[in-house]
Amino acid sequence: MRKTISFTSVVAASLIACGGGNSSSNVDAKGSGSGSGSNSSCTFSGTTTLPGYNTQNSEAIYFPAGSDGPAEILFRGQLGTQNAFEIILNAGGTDWPTTFGPKSNIDLATSQDAGVATLGDPNQTTMEYTTIYVATAGTINVTSAGSANASFAASISGVTLTHYDNILSGSAQPAPDADGCTTMIGSASVTATEMLGSGFEGAGLQRADNVLLHRRSY
After folding, report:
1. Whole-number pLDDT of residue 140
2. Consecutive H or E run containing 184
3. Which parts of the chain have pLDDT scores under 70?
4. DSSP for 26-46?
5. Per-residue model confidence (pLDDT) at position 96
6. Domain total in the chain
């Protein structure tokens, strides 16, 4: 469902090539074994606090509807030194049947039109993320959204994100990882100007959108 996105944009190097950035997020080194959502093996744990996003560490991309799926908006921001935060909106469903616009109180636990995720542990060879946490609880309010060059603004609250398998890779259906790792985002707001999407994006992130953060089949 994801169209293609150019990683030559201003935020590309910081998100994918593990560049520096400002963030107070709680991001742990990933280890082995299983455990609770707050142990040291979790890529994200406890409370994740998003940084203040601007044109230097985030971007919003609008993808028009096409043969590969309905229109989509992707917001992506840098999280820590090498990870990322994402909001994904898809048109063609209940919340946005045709075009994007304001929409309040969307339940992230059940919506098939909106998703929130954190991405981590980029492969140092392919520069593709290998870990994804998806929102399994919480609310998103979209106060502004449209097509290319429109203003995008959204806020989230009470978000719980759970470590999921078989989204970025694998052939099985997406499911929570046995490690039980979770993280929470209490509240956050983002704004950006939507750019028109073009170029190429790695297969892992295309797959993530194809299942719309674990709720749609692929």
Report:
1. 97
2. strand 182-196
3. 1-40, 68, 198-218
4. -BPPP-SS---TTSTT-SB-S
5. 94
6. 1
